[in-house]
Structures are given as C-alpha cells and as structure tokens.
Amino acid sequence: MRSLASENRQLLSKIATNDGHGENTPYFDGWKAYDRDPFHLTKNPSGVIQMGLAENQLCFDLIEDWIRKNPIASICTAEGVKDFKDVAIFQDYHGFPEFRKAIAKFMSKVRGGRVTFDPDRIVMGGGATGANEIVMFCLADPGDAFLVPTPYYPAFVRDLGWRTGAQIVPVHCDSSNNFQVTKQALEAAYEKAQNDNINVKGLLITNPSNPLGTTLDRQTLKTLVNFVNDKNIHLVCDEIYAATVFDYPSYVGVTEVVEEVENCNKDLIHIVYSLSKDMGLPGFRVGIVYSYNDAVVSCGRKMSSFGLVSSQTQRLLASMLDDDVFVSNFLSESSKRLKKRYENFTKGLEEVGITCLKSNAGLFFWMNLQRLLKEQTFEGEMALWLVIINEVKLNVSPGSSFQCSEPGWFRVCFANMEEETVNVALERIRSFVGKEAKQAAVPPVAKAKRNWRNNGNLRLSFNSRRHEQEGGFMSAAHMLSPHSPMPQSPLLRART
Ligand SMILES: Cc1ncc(COP(=O)(O)O)c(C=O)c1O
C-alpha cells in the first residue's frame, strides 16, 4: 500500500511536498509548545512563556492614542468613511504616492535624517518576508546562492529559498570576536561555494542582527560593500530593526556607507524593510524593497502584485508616518522602553550568573548557557532546550536553529510581554539555576545516583525517562509544526 506522503509527492508539486518551509525545526516547535499551554498571569500562571517571538508590544498605547486623535485617517470611522469608496476600489501595484512618500520620510528619520530615500524606488511586499522573497526572485535563479552570516534568522530558509529555489551558504562567525563578520569569513564561504560549484549571487545581512541584537559598525559595512563590489555580486541589507536601536553605538545603515565607498556600484545594493518591528505592526504586513537598481525596482513592483499592502493600511500609515511630532516621540519613547526592558532582564540574569552577548538593538538578546550544557555539543544544547521548555516552561530559541556554529547559545525575546511576565520568567530562571547549583553541591554518593554526571560545572539533572513516560512530554521529533492548521493558534497570528 502506498503511503499518503508518497501519494502526495505524485499529486502535488515539489514545493508543496518538500521541507523548504523550515517549520520542522525546534525554532517553530517551541511555538507549538507555547500554543499547547500558553502562559497567562491569572488564567494559566504555570503555562509556557513565549520568549521566541520577536514582537515589539511596548508602545501600543502611543499608536492607539494617535488613532483616537486622528479618526479621519481611518476609513471605518464617521470622519473617514467619505473616502471609503476611493480606498476600497482597485489599486495598482505602485501603491499610493502619499504612502510611498511617508515611508521614504520615515526611513530617513529612522536614520537620523542623514540620508534620503526616493519614494519612486519604494516597492511594496507582504512584510519583510515577502520583500526578501521578491529580491531573491529578482536576483537569483534556482540553485544560485546567497551568503548569509551565522547566526541568522531561521525563517530565511523559507523566505529566501523555499519558492525561489535559491540556497543559503553560511558565513561562519563565532564568539571569539562577538560574532562579527570578517573579510576572512566572507572569503572562506565564497571560496567554499566556488569549490562546491555553487553560483554565489550575493550576500545578505541583517543589520541590526537577528538574533544577536547588535548593529554593524561603519567599517564592517564598508568591508561588506567592498566585498560585493570586488566579486560583482549583490548586497541585500535586511534593515527591519533599523529603529529598534536603544543604545550606543547608534545605527548606521548601508545607505550612508554606499555614498562613502569609492566607485561603489549601486546597482548591487538593495534594502529590505518593514514596519513589523520598528512600529510593532507585524499584522499590517507592510514590507518594503528599496533598490538602487532600476531593473529590480521595475520587476519587483510587478511582482509585488502577489503581496500588496492593503489600501486601507496604506492610507492609515501615510497619515501616521507623516506626523512628525508623533513619529519623533514614538521613536524616542520606543528606544527608552526597550532599553529599560533589556537592562532589567539582563541584570536579572546576571544576578544568577547568566551572561549574554552585549547588545544595543533588536527585540531579543543572545544568552550564553554553555556552562549548563551536559556536553558541549548540539545534542547537549537540544537536551537543555527540552528541559527549559518542558520544566522551566520558557520558549526560548536554541542557537542551532539560527545555524550558530557553537552550541549553548539561545535567543530570548523580551519585548512581547508584560512587565509582570518578565518577573515570572526571571523567577523561573532563578529557581532553575538555583536548583542546579544546589544539586551541584550535594555529597558525592547522592551525586552518583543522578542521571547526569556533574563535572564541576552546573549541570542538568532532569530525569529524561520520567519525561518520556509522562503525558505531554515533548521531544523535538514528536512535535508538530506550529503552523499546522489550528484556527485559534496565536502562532497563526504572529510570525517571527
Ligand atoms: C531579520 C528578519 N527579517 C524578516 C522578518 C520577517 O518580518 P515580517 O513580519 O515583516 O515579514 C523578520 C521577523 O522576525 C526578521 O527578524
């Protein structure tokens, strides 16, 4: 009898039956764990806390306040309904001129007004997800590759390659220099790809980085721009966190640097942007491709038919982003709140001896739990992750899903929850680490009875067999994708 899977392989396309969506990974499995048992301060205080979602929920009060004060910006209010028909009827793929103008102005403001953006180069996409894919469709044929420094955003596997057929070649970075991208690492990845007969079409970077929460400095950006010019390949800069910078050094985007690099071929430079992070609006699906290459703008615009921003959203945002006072206040308040949250959280971790990579941007930090690993391998990392999700009940994302080259790093999102939830999360971590420390100090006879040996460091001591026997145990292999159809799933609402 033929299996359903093999039958589907005949009936459906290769894309529909391959794994290129990347969802069968712990990164997405963690969401599933949260989905099964979501934490709520009063209704489910022992549930899983979602710390795997890079969402900025710290400034909704400011946006709601603006919406209340500007009812005319919405077509679903008494004040705005007179424009309902004009907004609801057919729109072409260029987008409203006022929307593109407002986005260009916002992008410039986010970069301190030091650079300007031409509204005619702004192409719409369905979030940065859609925008990244548009760029790939414009620049790469199936089998072509983009170099991407590690650790990188796990969904790039899907966004860059699932439908386009392009592939990612990792540029390995490590903690010896705080995961900075170097010319040597770029050259090594490029050379390896060539030896493997892979056609490299470009380099894609995220600045600020997801998951590191760090910004690239000017010199590194210049190195990258020079590298792509030397090789005559493209540079795609995903700048989705450009305004989500809350500490020094301040942000430098590629737009500034291309002006400073002599003989830079601007046709090779493309920016991907979105309002999902900087404005905290991932549900609005506002993605942007900004390319200096006329052919990419022209083709990308036609492709954007597949993922336009709705005209209702364009209208609202055109008005909001054109309001200078609101935007300035929002950006500075957002940075302040993010900084405070980041500092509280990382200080709480430091108190129990957990260190994180020093960061200044993003909605997450990169936590080092190497000393809690039973063994310094990715199996050891996965074992620790299962304890954290099953016992400590925190959904943090393991470094292996970001293709990190060293085991023991975890990404922790900190801006998608209430302050009280942060306190609960910290309390859980404190108690977990405390328990480990206590067990590390018990007499040798008792120690020998434990499942996992302690070699002087803090070690895990959970009983894996007990977990396997208990209902509700999750191993990476058992878990379903969080995107399996589940109408009530919060995971269907949010990505990241
Ligand atoms: C680096 C990066 N690029 C793209 C995306 C996708 O963003 P959007 O929600 O705008 O599609 C994310 C979301 O987390 C991200 O972190």
UniProtKB/TrEMBL annotation:
What SUPFAM superfamilies does the annotation carry? PLP-dependent transferases
Pfam families, per database record: Aminotran_1_2
One GO MF term attached to the UniProt entry:
transaminase activity
Q: Which reaction is recorded as catalysed by this protein?
A: S-adenosyl-L-methionine = 1-aminocyclopropane-1-carboxylate + S-methyl-5'-thioadenosine + H(+)
* Enzyme Commission number(s) from the entry: 4.4.1.14
GO annotation terms (biological process): ethylene biosynthetic process; fruit ripening
The record's listing under Gene3D superfamilies reads: Aspartate Aminotransferase, domain 1, Type I PLP-dependent aspartate aminotransferase-like (Major domain)
Q: Recite the UniProt keywords alphabetically.
A: Ethylene biosynthesis, Fruit ripening, Pyridoxal phosphate, S-adenosyl-L-methionine
UniProt-listed InterPro entries: Aminotransferase_I/II_large, Ethylene_sulfur-biosynth, NHTrfase_class1_PyrdxlP-BS, PyrdxlP-dep_Trfase, PyrdxlP-dep_Trfase_major, PyrdxlP-dep_Trfase_small
Question: Region entry Disordered: which residue ranges?
Answer: 475-496
Q: In which pathway does it act?
A: Alkene biosynthesis; ethylene biosynthesis via S-adenosyl-L-methionine; ethylene from S-adenosyl-L-methionine: step 1/2
Q: Which residues form the Aminotransferase class I/classII large domain?
A: 49-429
Q: Which family does it belong to?
A: Belongs to the class-I pyridoxal-phosphate-dependent aminotransferase family.
Query: Record's PANTHER family?
Result: 1-AMINOCYCLOPROPANE-1-CARBOXYLATE SYNTHASE-LIKE PROTEIN 1 (PTHR43795:SF74), BIFUNCTIONAL ASPARTATE AMINOTRANSFERASE AND GLUTAMATE/ASPARTATE-PREPHENATE AMINOTRANSFERASE-RELATED (PTHR43795)
What does the annotation say about its assembly with partners?
A: Homodimer.
- What name does this protein carry? 1-aminocyclopropane-1-carboxylate synthase
The organism named in the record is Morus notabilis
